[in-house]
Amino acid sequence: GQQLNQSPQSMFIQEGEDVSMNCTSSSIFNTWLWYKQDPGEGPVLLIALYKAGELTSNGRLTAQFGITRKDSFLNISASIPSDVGIYFCAGPYSGAGSYQLTFGKGTKLSVIP
Amino acid sequence: DGGITQSPKYLFRKEGQNVTLSCEQNLNHDAMYWYRQDPGQGLRLIYYSQIVNDFQKGDIAEGYSVSREKKESFPLTVTSAQKNPTAFYLCASSVNRVGQPQHFGDGTRLSIL
C-alpha cells in the first residue's frame, strides 16, 4: 500500500532559526496537505497543494508540491515558540472510490527560546 | 462557527466496560472518520463513513464499532474486546471528493482505570 515517509522525525531548533521538513511518497499524488497538531489538540490544516511545482505560503510557512509528484516540502521561517507541535503531511489514499487520506507519521518540532 | 465537536475531552474506562465517544459536525460534510493516535505512530484509521447509514472498516477496526444514523453524528464505541484502548482518538470530516482536506475535532483522550 501507499506509504508516506516524513523526515526528520523530530527536530530541536533555536528560536529565530528556519526549519525545513519533507515528505516522500511511494506513489504519485495529485494533492499534498500539511497539518499542524498542537499538544492535546486535533490537527489543523496549514496548506493545501494541488498542482506539481506549486509553491504556496501561509504567513511564515511555505510549502512546495514536488515536480515528481512524489514529494512535498514545508519550510518555516524565523521560528517562534508557538511553532512547537507535530507537523503531518497527507495525500489521497489510492483505493478506488475512496476519499480517505494517507498520513505521514509526523515531524515533531521543538523550539528552544 | 462551523466545526467538529468531540466529547468528552477525557474518558476513563474500567476493565470489561464499553465506552462511547461522541463526534458531531455542523460543516454539512458527507464523510466522517475516526482515527487513533499513539505516541510516535501518527494517525491510524479505525472506521470511516462516506454517507449516512453506511460505514467501512479502516486499518484497525477490531474492538471498535460505529453508527451513522445522522449526517451530523458519528459516534465511536470502544468495546471490551479492545484490549489496549488507551490512546488519543480523533474524529474528522470532509466533503466527498478525492484529495479534499479533512477537518478534525480536538480529540478525546481515553485511559484505563
Give the SSE layout.
The complex is a heterodimer of chains A (113) and B (113).
Chain A: E1 4-7, E2 10-14, E3 19-25, E4 32-37, E5 44-49, E6 55-58, E7 61-65, E8 71-76, E9 85-92, E10 101-103, E11 107-112
Chain B: E1 4-7, E2 10-13, E3 19-25, E4 31-37, E5 43-51, E6 54-57, E7 64-66, E8 76-78, E9 87-94, E10 103-104, E11 108-112
Parallel strand pairs in B: 2-11
Antiparallel strand pairs in B: 1-3, 3-8, 4-5, 4-9, 5-6, 7-8, 9-10, 9-11
What does this structure look like?
The complex is a heterodimer of chains A (113) and B (113). With 113 residues, chain A is mainly beta. Chain A has strands at residues 4-7, 10-14, 19-25, 32-37, 44-49, 55-58, 61-65, 71-76, 85-92, 101-103, 107-112. In chain A, the strands form two sheets. In chain A, strands 2, 4, 5, 9, 10 and 11 form a six-stranded mixed beta sheet that branches. In chain A, a hairpin with a 2-residue loop joins strand 6 (55-58) and strand 7. Chain A starts with a strand and ends with a strand. Chain B has no helices and eleven strands. Chain B has strands spanning 4-7, 10-13, 19-25, 31-37, 43-51, 54-57, 64-66, 76-78, 87-94, 103-104, 108-112. In chain B, strands 2, 4, 5, 6, 9, 10 and 11 form a seven-stranded mixed beta sheet that branches. The radius of gyration of chain B is 13 Å and the shape is globular. The termini of chain B are far apart. The mean pLDDT of chain B is 93. Classes of the chains: A mainly beta (113), B mainly beta (113). At the A-B interface, strand 5 and strand 9 of A face strand 5, strand 9 and strand 10 of B.
Number of H/I helices of chain A: 0
Q: Number of helical runs of chain B? A: 0
Content-based structural category of chain A: mainly beta
Helix and strand composition category of chain B: mainly beta
Radius of gyration of chain B: 13 Å
Helix coverage percent of residues of chain A?
Answer: under 10%
Distance between the termini of chain B: 35 Å
Q: What characteristic shape of chain A results from the CA principal axes?
A: globular
